[in-house]
Each structure stands twice: as structure tokens, then as C-alpha cells.
Amino acid sequence: MLAALAGCEREPAPPPEDDGRLVVAVRPGPTSWFPGPDGAPSGFDHDVLMRFAAERGVALKVVEVASAEALLAMVSTGEAHVGVGGLYPPPPSTRKADAAHPDPRPVVWTNGYYAVEPVLIYRRDGFKPKTWRDLAGAEVGYIDATGIVEQLRAARAAHPEVEWKPMSLASADALIAQVLPGHVAAIVEEMGALTAEEQEILGRLCRKLGKRES
Fold first, then answer.
1. Is 118-205 CATH 3.40.50.720?
2. Which of 19, 49, 144, 186 is the most buried (most CB within 10 A)?
3. Are 86 and 69 in contact (CB under 8 A)?
4. What is the CATH number that goes with domain 2-109?
5. CATH 3.40.190.10-classified regions of the chain
6. Entry pTM
């Protein structure tokens, strides 16, 4: 979860106390914000923000966004007070004002509350890699602007032979859909972002490669 420090370029949303509304940019996902059994929004982030808005005595205005880039843009420009949607925060070293390479976005981040581990997903009827070296020349896709690139920094540096492909997609479901028709040879995704049914189906297809180098 992240919040705006200051708006720029566009007219920022008025403070919740003045406008009576808390504007939230949401990137839906099965770990944070999703339709419940009756179709109404549900999820941990949803429940936290509903309670926060109620305690502040303001209404909750939700704006669903199509990508992580759009979510970050809305918060950093002040169009939304808060953004939620399964993002990795940047390294602490980049959040300091005197950092050598500071995070250019004027936002603040909360502490993480849900741990996930990147895994590799590939087609069951295709090639089955055992190490990153088996993926030389193959495309490994991941959702851009979510912060996962920092989690993959070591693997990307150690294996330039892999064609790492950032993709501007709305959700984990959209990412998995790129694997199913064979558009991408392999995809890195956070297992925690999959539904229980997806985890069961894809469990046999995943290989955790981080500690299995040879």
C-alpha cells in the first residue's frame, strides 16, 4: 500500500477531511481486492480501507486501474490519496533523500504484510527447465512496475542469456494467460498472487529455481 507525498503536473485530490472522500486507486488481485461471493468487493486491503475511512468519517471512492504503472501514476500525481494492488516497495536505500539513486516517485510506502516468493510457470506439455541456464534464449515475462524486478535483480544479472520481458498487464491472471497459448516460454510470478484453484492447477508446473543452480 502506498500514499501520495505531494501532487505534481495534475490537480491533486483535495484532502479527505475537506472533500469528505478518500480516493483509492486499486489494482484488483486475489490477495488484496477481489469480488466476493455476492459480487461485492472483498479482500484484506478492501477491509482495511473501509475501516480506515469509517474511522475518519469519510466516504471511500474507489478507482480501479488497469496496470501497476497507472496506479503509481495516480498516487504520485496526487489524483488518489492511497494506492493498493500487490506491489513490492522499492529498496529502503532508494527512499532516502540523499540516496545515490532515489526513487523518483513522490510516494510513501507502508510495511509489507503478505510474503510471496517468485516462481517459474511454464506449460506442462512443453520444455521443462531445471535451472535458469536451461532457459537461455527463452522469454521470461513478469508484470512491469510492480517492483518484482528488484526481487529478480540477482537472477537477471547472473543470467543475461535469458530474455527477461517486462509486460504491462493488469493482473496475475493476465500474466498466466500469456503462458497458456505459448506466447511466452516461461513467466515469473508471485505464487501468493494466485487463487487457491490456480495454485492447485499450476503447482505441478512450477519449479523454484533460486537454490537449484548447477
1. no
2. 186
3. no
4. 3.40.190.10
5. 2-109, 118-205
6. 0.66
